[in-house]
Amino acid sequence: MTSPPQIFDRALWRRRLARAARAEKPCDFLMARVAEDFAFRLSTAQRAFPRALDLGSPQRAVADILASPGRLVVRAAPFAGGFSGENLVADEELPPFAPESFDLVVSALNLQFVNDLPGALAQIRRLLAPDGLFLAAMVGGQSLRELRICLTLAQEEIEGGASPRVAPFADLRDLGGLLQRAGLALPVADVDAFTVRYAHALDLMRDLRAMGATNALIAGARRPLRRDVLLRACALYQENFADDDGRIRARFEIIWASGWAPHESQQKPLAPGSAKVRLSAALGDKSESL
Questions:
Q1: What whole-number distance in Å separates Cα of residue 186 and Cα of residue 206?
Q2: 105 with 132: CB under 8 angstroms?
Q3: What is the phi/psi pair of residue 283, to 5°?
Q4: C-alpha span between 234 and 201 (Å, rounded)
């Protein structure tokens, strides 16, 4: 078997997350939005989930939401940090847990930075007990579209070519298939898209740095962005993606994915050919069926 391509410098990514966590004012608006949505989605499941794992979420907000009387919550973080429950540092691609250890596995805003997403999903499936739930939020493919366009245009204009500066995020259309490929039943994927406005493109970049979400791509991460390229990208952003009041727009997408470890109690699709009523009759079509 061939190894998956190495897209991200994972050690560099972890160092930047740790640096962001130590900041006096970390940027947490994305995680706060995701944590609130986690609470709502889990409330609709109407299950106790006595053993829960937060796998790799870079901030503790989601793990804190999971904490409840009678529930064991393990936080496997990408770097060392405080948390009120069980806490360890672990890699999402190689989680150090026995099969069927958890009834619930969640992950927030980190799976978009793994090098082997199909492999990570397969590992998550291995950790789930029968009828256990996997629920994750990750940054989607159209996030920061405006920033990517402006950085590419600025590099091509000044340097004669562009190197990747923003990660290739997950695509909603592919995620359902990846969940099924990992062996998860009843897969569901949906997207939460929204726009955040900033006074200047540099304010957006400061927020990304405060999230630990600056460039960790192996291709391009080692070479700092030239100042003239940065300033030109900011000017292009203002020219092309500013509202009438002068504030610039930044699109974010949060892709939600869920799936269940198979269990005999789960609803199953009917076998092909088992229908007892013609589709035309069900739709009220009185024309002759071909």
A1: 39
A2: yes
A3: -90, 0
A4: 6
